[in-house]
């Protein structure tokens, strides 16, 4: 019996040992070996450069900017150890004393109140293991922490940790965090800044000074207090650091935040070379990106969308909280620690309200906003843009109450104190694309108001109706089908009957009929009826074929609504198409990447400008000539502000859902689109001329100043150089009333024609009387129609 018992015991011991051994090997499977840990180096990703060879971004798995431990200030090292792992220099990866202390406090509190992960364990989790909250993962973490401690020095562990841990707002590692929050390198951080940053590690979003200044300051004090308790600093140093103002960066890490241009490049690279090569291949990508032109595009779009947003009206407070107004007003200014800058947009709490002004508190500062600076609040709207009420005069009393949360902008700094004005971030979106017509180089892409809030690249991927911005394509196609800018088409009532889709009666924007109209004049004033008739004359299929030739891919509606821009198209595609007109009928291949160098120094892609002749240069010039007059005399009149040769076209879709302006000079072609993502109306009268053209003008003024003033031979360019006239273009003097050759009895104007297409008939009294009679008949028809409508309404 005893022998059986001994045998059984041995059997169970062997089995149990086997289970433990197997469990151990199963557990540690996937945990990096010592060699991997000691030889760990971040994978080399892709570096992206602007056209001046400065680094503008990186694509890599390992985010952040690596810094050596020798470049990290002692204050940062002491702060992170004090708050995250005070016994870091004593333990061997796992702090058993801290575990017991944490368990005791958790039991007393009746809940999990305190963790006990060491910096080494956190490093194991951040760098090598998944973030799963399981027992197996915690055991792997402990195993790896033990291996790390036995094979790396404490300094090496700290260097890895501080370069990998996340600090919020897209900042990985202490160097990126220093730039994100303070606009400086980690080596320049002082004690106060170090304490704030190291306090973020526990919960970056919770303690962000941008999101909640009070919590960030509380956490900063905890870090300073822990540093004092551990003997790193004195009480006086802690107090002094806490009372020191915080010069937070206004732009949250704009230098390293991915832009719409970078995302456009990244998408191409991933499609062309694969994810593995992009994030681990050590590529150098040299682009056509111009920093100053991009900055001009960003600024112009933001200002334009803000102006449009103000015209729409005030959406009211963004929130509300219960406050003790007396405490807020009489409390000391210990929280007045954030140094604001002119232009900063911050959230403020309303403390007192009168019609003329309101007292607000933002980032610890108490100030006033004045109704006289906010006349746009007279129209109050909901989130969908519906008007709730209209005020006769701007006043805050009926709009705000104490405790309301609003957005204010710092308009000025007076004696280091901010002057506030009421503001709000736009909901409307927009896009800008700028391309050189002769090279196809994409100089700027802006795909929305704020990349950090919406990464969707509207410049590339938003397919929106083109509206009247598509009309130049129809008119240019007509130049290839025996029409000239002087050709007449009757602008008269038009009705297309359809049992399937219902009757369609196109109308002009001004709801008038203008009789016989030259094509140049029709495009100048964006006449709908003439454009529909013109498309009917040349044929829808022919127009689509022409559009495809200049690079518009479609899909196209195969009907006459195409004349009014019913197709959907992206701003990038529209810009490339108009480059054909600007480039004498040659289609440039859009280029965002000049060349790519691999890790071995080999050029693996080299994109030289490539132009393909796709339409007759004479057709391109006639289109440009008519579009120049759109700017000089028509809907594009605002672009005259450039005081140079400009061709362009506005575009507005039904119910003002989309606003466009596409224009070009010999040097640069740019598209601007404005609209809501949910396709709601921009508001009455928000046409392409009003909503989009000012953005285009603001951008082009700055962008053209950045383009080289010299041609390839080194000669100075004429700033106001005209568009070149190709061979085969001739001029004729015509009567603007009939489009026929002028006589001594008619008005005269100079018109451009393809050679051989100049009219051969003179404008006689017969033709002039015929045109005038048709116009008078249409006026009478319009009066009769208005009279009938008035009678029916009564």
List keywords for this structure.
single chain, about 800 residues, alpha+beta, six-stranded antiparallel β-sheet, five-stranded mixed β-sheet, about 40% helix
Summarize the structure in words.
The protein is an alpha+beta fold and 794 residues long. 38% of the residues lie in helices and 17% in strands. It contains 24 helices and 26 strands. The strands form 8 sheets. Strands 4, 5, 6, 7, 10 and 11 form a 6-stranded antiparallel sheet that branches. A 5-stranded mixed sheet has the order 2-1-3-19-20. The longest helix is centred in the C-terminal third of the chain and has 29 residues, at 765-793. The radius of gyration is 34 Å and the shape is globular. Residues 14-28, 106-114, 251-258 and 709-716 have low confidence and may be disordered.
Percent in strands? 15-25%
Largest β sheet strand count, sense and barrel closure: 6 strands, antiparallel
Note the total helix count: 24
Mean pLDDT: 86
What is the rounded Rg?
Answer: 34 Å
Give the tally of β-strands.
26
- Shape label: globular
Query: Which stretches are low in confidence, meaning pLDDT under 50 for 5 or more residues running?
Result: 14-28, 106-114, 251-258, 709-716
- Which bin fits the share of residues in helices? 25-40%
Kindly report how far apart the N and C termini lie: 116 Å
Structural class: alpha+beta
Assembly of the depicted chains: single chain
Quick structural summary:
The protein is α+β, with helices and mostly antiparallel strands and 794 residues long. It contains 24 helices and 26 strands. Helix 3 (74-84) crosses helix 10, helix 9 crosses helix 10 and helix 10 packs antiparallel against helix 11.
